[in-house]
Amino acid sequence: MAIDIIYGENVSQGVGADTTNGLWLSAEDFAHVSGFERKPEGFCKGEVCYPVPPSRKAEFERAGRYNLAALAELIGQPMVVDETRRVWCFGEASENRRRALTSLDAPDFTLPDLEGRMHSLSEHSGKKVLLVSWASW
Amino acid sequence: MWQSLYTELGPKGFVPIAIAFDSAGNAAAEPWIKAANPTYPCLIDRRHIVAELFDMINVPNACWIDERGKIVRPTEAAGTSDAFRKMDRTNFSIPPDALADLLARRSAYLNAIRDWVDKGAQSKFALGEKEAVRRMHTPSDQHVRAAANFRLGEYLAENGHKDAAQKYFEEAKRLRPESWTYKRQAWALEDPLKAGGPEFWAAVDALGENKYYPRPEDI
Predict the structure, then answer these.
(1) Nearest chain B Cα to A123, which residue?
(2) What is the pTM of this model?
(3) What is the C-alpha separation between B171 and B140, in angstroms, rounded?
(4) In chain B, what are the domain boundaries?
(5) Which residue intervals of chain A are DSSP H helices?
(6) What confidence tens digit (pLDDT) does each residue in B178-210 have?
(7) Which residues of A fall within a CB distance of 8 Å from B15?
(8) Residue B14 to residue A128, Cβ atoms within 8 A
């Protein structure tokens, strides 16, 4: 079935998925959506690899597809699903947020201004920044 | 308030970056930004991603980041106080003593920023690494689950499923009851007036002695 997947910064719409007992994507879609690739060491993104527990391989791999829900559970990523509208949402693991913040390196981000021009925090390197929230509400 | 500070301190290498936690996007934020006419960056954060990254649960919350991109003051309530709780809810006036308290807290915060801009790492308000880590609050498993629910709700709202979105906002609120951004953003998407309506005041009153804007230890 065609589903939408929210994964971190990215949204992938109309992804062909098998949602029987998990979220099974083709290797190509899996990598495109999550940035993770299946390697001998496990599921890897950049320098980080998560080994597949040998006794649980069948939860992760099946007929050329990989289970994104199983990987999320392994990593500690929260997953929330709207079955009716077929939207799967994956958030960041708390451990990753914790590690990032306690490093004291301010996480970078990119957001638009009113005119739709994109701005990043890192553009202001070299200045003292007051990052302050507000809202119309 | 930030514009005049930027005018004053901008030449000394300071910049405020204001982030609008407004899931309704430009439609919600534009009138306020146009009125403020800022020359510093005012960015629109529909998904509340900066709230997730910096663990912000209210507005205004602020974080200080130095020239090397290091956090020298983790997220805290920025230059405000619980004075608004003494507001007359019919005519919106604040009693003079509460107003004086609010102005004093604002002034203290602005002066702390001035001190930081003037003295850099030597400012007592720019926390050393150990103290910055001690004060840093980071999200739990439950909190990131709340964030994922909020994210899904916001996606559904943005794509025309406003009623369905509320179910996920309710779950986000349940998982992180101390977040005012979840409550007020969800209410605002139901009805713009609701974020400051009876539900809001009831939730504020339910705090009792607890602070809506906890006071920074040293400002």
Answers:
(1) B69
(2) 0.96
(3) 15
(4) 141-195
(5) 27-34, 57-60, 68-75, 94-102
(6) 999 999 999 999 998 999 999 999 999 999 999
(7) 124, 127-130
(8) yes
